[in-house]
Amino acid sequence: MGSEKDRFFMKMAISMAKKGEGWVSPNPMVGAVLVKDSRILSKGFHRRYGGDHAEVDAIKRAKEPLEGATLYVNLEPCCHWGKTPPCCDAIIKAGIKRVVIANRDPNPLVNGKGIEILKRHGIEVETGILEGEGKALNRAYFKYYEEKSPFVTLKWAQSLDGKIATSEGDSKWISSQRALRFAHKLRAIHQAVVVGIGTVLKDDPQLTVRLVRGRNPLRVILDSHLRIPLDSKVLNVREAPLLIATTQKADPGKMALLQQKGIEVLKLGKERVDLRELLNVFYERKIQSVLVEGGKEVLTSFLREGLCDRLTVVISPKLMGEGLSPLGDLGIKKMEEAFLLKNASLKKIGSDWIFEGYLK
Fold first, then answer.
1. Exactly one of 4, 21, 55, 124 is catalytic; which is it?
2. Comparing C-alpha atoms, which of 136, 128, 198 is closest to residue 169?
3. How many other C-beta atoms are found inside a 10 Å radius of the C-beta of residue 120?
4. Domain containing 349 — which CATH number?
5. DSSP code of 35?
6. Final residue of a domain: which of 102, 121, 143?
7. DSSP element (H, E) containing 8
8. Which spans in 138-204 are helix H?
9. pLDDT in tens, 104-147
10. Residues whose CB falls within 8 Å of the CB of residue 7, separated by 6 or more in sequence, listed in order
11. What average pLDDT does the structure give for the chain?
């Protein structure tokens, strides 16, 4: 559990870690705080993938010697060479005497090895301080290594009475401009964004990050029969990678045309795209977080197959009456069979509300 002081500085380290959201994946978000005699010497965080890790960032920012200091870091320091040198080496060299950690790193390259190295060098190590908060921060990272599968978020925008489009199919725009920026922020903090061919045919989206600063995710289209028009925006925007998941039913000629345009096409299933196989592809490519934006059939399939971890729903204070619902048949016959979301929250953005809940 740790002392009140340890929890205070660990909360600060977790807050620092959040600053790297959307920029560090597939690395985890990590923050660090260096303290001596209850005085903060420096703070740091992992800013970009390939850049200094949080511990090294904090050490470099310190303006005085660190001998005898305590390092607060939300994830076990690494002990292997990757894009950067091992953090354990920098900690030992700096003369830090105590390291307080929220979470052990589930990456098999670390997973306790960093802690043991620090202890062997006479450094006091304490773990499990705000462990729950630390794991919640890096949910996708932990699921990737512990379950060998990416963390999947389903997202849609709806009216107050649960409709994603009018009876005529009009859906632009249900939500406010601030909510649209939030949607682009979601894209920026996920490594892949998935939509079905129905969404492409209806909305002709680009699926890129434009309304906020951030990295573009891998754009993934589920298109069992390769119905995608060759002049679709998503095919002709080259600043973001694209993958089309199709099936054995796909037209070989259309597939060849797409590949000639430099577009990757994968056959995943016989008649329908196999979602579990798609998630396996993501895992092999080190994609830890996936945002599914629709449409109705795709959202329903992810839920029915038990492949969703989190729901994010933008709720606009509008009423439509008759219209299109976000989900289809989930095979639920009794109320006790209904999906029950955990840790549900509601926050206001502009005139809209953002609902978030977890299924796992």
1. 55
2. 198
3. 10
4. 3.40.430.10
5. E
6. 143
7. helix 4-17
8. 139-147, 177-189, 197-203
9. 999 999 999 999 999 999 999 999 999 999 999 999 999 999 99
10. 1, 129, 130
11. 95
Q: What is the chain's length?
A: 360
Tokens representing 220 are 């993934």
Among the candidates 143, 161, 186, a domain finishes at 143
DSSP string, 244-298: EEE-TTS-HHHHHHHHHTT-EEEE-SSSS--HHHHHHHHHHTT--EEEEEE-HHH
Q: pLDDT tens digit string along 21-41?
A: 999 999 999 999 999 999 999
Please state, in angstroms and rounded to a whole number, the distance separating the CA atoms of residues 66 and 99: 12
SS3 349: strand
Does the active-site annotation cover 124? no
Asked whether the whole model's pTM tops 0.85, one would answer yes
Any idea which residue has 């998935």 for tokens?
Answer: 194
Q: Provide the domain limits for residue 319.
A: 149-358
Could you tell me the two tokens for 134? 């630390």
- Do 46 and 68 share a domain, yes or no? yes
Distance CA 102, CA 113 (A): 15
Query: Using one digit for the tens of pLDDT, what is the confidence trace for 255-274?
Result: 999 999 999 999 999 999 99
CA distance 192 to 265: 15
